[in-house]
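Objective 1.3, modelling of assemblies. Example input:
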Amino acid sequence: MALLQIAEPGESTAPHEHRLAVGIDLGTTNSLVATVKSGTAEVLLNQEGNKLTPSVVRYFADGGVTVGSQPKAEQADDPANIIVSVKRFMGRGMADVARYGALPYKFVDAPGMVKIETVAGLKSPVDVSADILRALRVQAEAALAGPLVGAVITVPAYFDDAQRQATKDAARLAGLNVLRLLNEPTAAAIAYGLDNASEGTFAVFDLGGGTFDISILKLTRGVFEVLSTNGDSALGGDDFDQAIAAHWRKLHGLASANHKDLRRMLMAARAVKEDLTTADDALAEIQLSYGQTLNVKLSRAEFHNMTAHLVERTLSPVKKALRDAKLSVDDITGIVMVGGATRMLHVQAAVNGFFGKPLLNNVDPDKVVALGAAIQANVLAGNKSGDDMLLLDVIPLSLGIETMGGLVEKLVPRNSTIPVARAQEFTTFKDGQTAMAMHVVQGERELVKDCRSLAQFTLRGIPPMVAGAARIRVTFQVDADGLVSVVAQELTSGVVAQVDVKPSYGLTDAEIATMLQASFTYAKDDAAARVLAEARTDAQRLIEAVQAAMAADADLLSATERALILQEIERLHRRQSEGDAPAIKASIEKLSTATETFAAKRMDKSVAKAMTGKSLDEIAKIGL
Amino acid sequence: MSITLTERAANHVQNYMTKRGKGVGLRFGVRTTGCSGMAYKLEFVDEPTPEDQTFESYGVKVFVDPKSLVYIDGTELDFVREGLNEGFKFNNPQEKDKCGCGESFNV
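Predicted structure (tokens):
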């Protein structure tokens, strides 16, 4: 029979209607799944009885797949087919992957994202992540004895649209309904109930197994906004183990230990490191190959000394993140500690010393992100009545499209709460234009070249009309996960083109903050650039219109008139290339004046033409 | 007339209440919904109602409204683990049959 959980007063669900929802922390090194049971968020244990499932996947030639601690232990046996830390490759191109240095995988370039060649065929990072998520789903459904209605999956705050979309795709492949993607630091803040506070600015210090992230979050009326992120993608708890193992090898003259022995030393180092959070001294016994036994010990003071440089390395990203957010340590209301490595006492002391404030670290730092995601999933699945926790997210950077002259027209301003939809009408630039290229960009700057390109698509089949007559409605939609879709529709004919953002890949972690920063720094330059680009576009439009008119009605112009107009066109051309906006505007005025009589004559001619050969009756009708 | 908790169940309720930070006990009752007539209801109690009958096992108070008590009198509430799943289970002597899932029942 089904096992019941305790509900909040008055919130018992009807039988079969309790909606099982989980939060998933899909980590670089380890992944966790959590749920809310009897009002309390808790991490679900996997088949081996562990809360952490290593994010490691092994592929076999017969199509078999294993996930977790088993493939992790086998790493050395089959490195090419055992994929570790696949999160680093999500939404990444070949150039990004090259930055990670020598890896045992055979990467294949593919549109959008690299793929990895394995004995089971080509696997994209999305496929590998899907296999991890599938294992977590099976684990959760076993633990909850029922199918899941959905999951909240956490992603780093710096993940761009490509990486978020890739994560969503992976979940879909794994048979999970994604209720929401949630920023990891935001999830940690929720686990501490910070979203119930009215206001505040929080630093989330996340030192995991292999990566370090610092995020500055601002909370206003229940809305978390990521002000800045920074980090070190090659710094984590594993580096501390390495430092200890290196120390022992030097001490015991084991410079050239074999792989197995190294592994055992690292495991012992890890155990000692963990012991030293509660004890002043720790001992370990390492069974080496050839039957040798190594007795090692380490004091807390020694450990702290030999790894002080690693702790120090976390502080510079923290300072940068604060600087990007234009904040000082005094502006920070609280510090949330995330990641198992933050259990180390000297890490805590350093962070505490830097901010001069007590830390929030009483929730298990390994679980805190998954627990926050579970709380959010429970709300989104509809298991909690009332609107006591409506969490909103905002888009980090403005979205817009490119207009003539390389300018950005922003449709969705940054910090808009999502989901959001915005529309604006645009028109054609040239007579008879039947297609329009749409370039979707992200960023705060005025010029396209300074923003980030997200997608390009073309609206075709616009009926030929004079410039400016077509009405093209461009609609931006951003869903609750921050994913963008853009629709362009020509309203008179109804032709439609659309794109779901399959963004160009390769945004680095700190780039969002940098882009934001740049928009403030270059505000003046940008404004000037916009005025210039607009003037140039106006000039171009006028020149083309005049040239088209001259070609159509050359007979209406006297030689002198023609010479004058050509001279002004030539001048405007020159001004256009010089880059002085007021001069271009003045020159536009002059060309307009020079063509006034010509325009009047054309008007007369077209009226006459409309009436020629028509009876008076018909003309009267036209007049009506 | 009695409703009892096993020691295991009582410990788990205590734990959940501590984590929750409030609550005076557990409400146990039935509702006339579900695929087999009636469904069990298990909730935290913040404010008991005057007509509630109160029982106590291992320091945990159980509140039952008189209408429900008719159907569940004599029930023992246990906390069990089945594979990876764990939760509360009812041993109701009055239960005649129940739907496959056990969430609803008939007397």
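Chain B is about 20% helix and 45% strand.
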